[in-house]
Amino acid sequence: MPKHSLRVATWNINSLRLRLGLLNDLVAALDPDVICLQETKVPDELFPHDGPPALGYPHVVYRGMKGYNGVAILSRLPLKHIDIAPDWCGKGDCRHVAVEVETKSGPVELHDFYVPAGGDVPDREQNVKYGHKLDFIAEARAWFAARTGLDRTILVGDLNIAPLEHDVWSHKQLLGVVSHTPPETEGLNAWMKTGFVDAIRHFVPDTEKVYTWWSYRNRDWKVANRGRRLDHVWVTPDLKPALHKHTILTEARDWTKGSDHVPVCVELRL
DNA sequence: ATGGTGGATGTTCCA
C-alpha cells in the first residue's frame, strides 16, 4: 500500500476578508491539502464563499461571528463537519471547529482551535480574560481526556501559549507575561498529554528557538526578533511515524499587510 | 518605564 502525503497548514490570518489574497501566497509556498485559519473575524453570513474554491479549496467548514474570533477549514479533500464538541466556557465565541478529512488512506480527525489570548494581567482575580483562558484550557483538556482511544487525529491552531523555554525570546523575562506563565504552560502541557505529541518539537529540538508570532508593536520585528511560538500542530502518537516534514513560513511576517502570525505546516505520509 | 501597531467597528473593543 503506497503512502500518501497530507499537508496541513495552520495560520492566524487576523481577518479573512482583509487577507484573502495572501492565501494565494500561502498556497504557493506550502501547497497544503488543508488550511486551518483562526481569527477570521467574519460572521457566517458574510463568509467569502467564492474565495476558497477559486484557490483550489472547494471543501470549507467555518464558524464565525461579528468582529472577533472565528475559525475556518479549507480543503482540497472532502470534509465532514464533526459537531460533537461543547460550546467552550458557554460563551458561543467561535473558537473551535472540527472535521473528518477524507484522505486517500482513510479518515483523519482534525481540530482547529483559537484559544483566548487572555488579556494583560496574569491574575484571574484582576483579569477575567486570564481566568477565561485557563478555564478554556482546563475544559478542553477534560474533554479530550474523556475521548479515550483517539487516533488518526490532528489538533492545530493559535493556542496563544508558548509552552517551552525556547518557545520565547527570553524565558526569564516572559515568565510573568501572559502566554508563558506557569499556569498556562502547565495547563497546555496537561491538555497535550491527554493524547497528543507536539509535531513541531518532533522536528526541532527543545534547545532550539522556534517562533510563529512577532508583535506588531515593534518597528522592526526581524531586528528585535522577540518572537513566541503560539501556533501549534499536535498529532496522536499513532501518527508520529507518519510525520515527514514541517515548515514555519517565517518570510510571511514580511508580506505586505501581513498577519502578526506566520503559517505553520506539517506534512504526513499516511 | 511605558508605549508601541493593527483590525473591526463605530467614537472603543480586542489582540
Key structural traits:
alpha+beta; Deoxyribonuclease I, Chain A; six-stranded mixed sheet; 14 strands; globular; DNA-binding
**Uncertain segments:** none
**What would the CATH topology be?**
Deoxyribonuclease I, Chain A
β-strand percent reads 25-35%
Structural class: alpha+beta
User: What's the gyration radius in Å?
Assistant: 17 Å
Tally of strands = 14
CATH superfamily: Endonuclease/exonuclease/phosphatase
Number of helices: 8
CATH classification class = Alpha Beta
Shape: globular
Binned, the helix content reads 10-25%
Strand order of the largest sheet: 3-4-2-1-14-13
Total number of distinct structural domains: 1
Using the 3D structure, state the CATH architecture. Answer: 4-Layer Sandwich
Topology pattern, helix = H, strand = E: EHHEHEEEEEHEHHEHEHEEEE
Task: Characterize the structure shown.
There is one protein chain. It contains 8 helices and 14 strands. The chain is α+β, with helices and mostly antiparallel strands. The protein has a single domain (5-269), classed as 4-Layer Sandwich (Deoxyribonuclease I, Chain A). It has a 6-stranded mixed β-sheet. Helix 4 (128-146) runs parallel beside helix 6. The structure holds one DNA strand of 15 nucleotides.
Spell out the blueprint of helices and strands.
Layout (H helix, E strand, L loop, with lengths): L4 E8 L3 H4 L2 H9 L3 E5 L12 H5 L3 E5 L7 E5 L3 E3 L14 E8 L2 E9 L13 H19 L6 E6 L12 H4 L7 H11 L4 E2 H5 L9 E2 L6 H4 L2 E2 L2 E5 L7 E6 L15 E6 L1
Parallel strand pairs: 1-2, 7-8
Antiparallel strand pairs: 1-14, 2-4, 3-4, 5-6, 6-7, 8-12, 9-12, 10-11, 13-14
The protein binds one DNA strand of 15 nucleotides through loops.
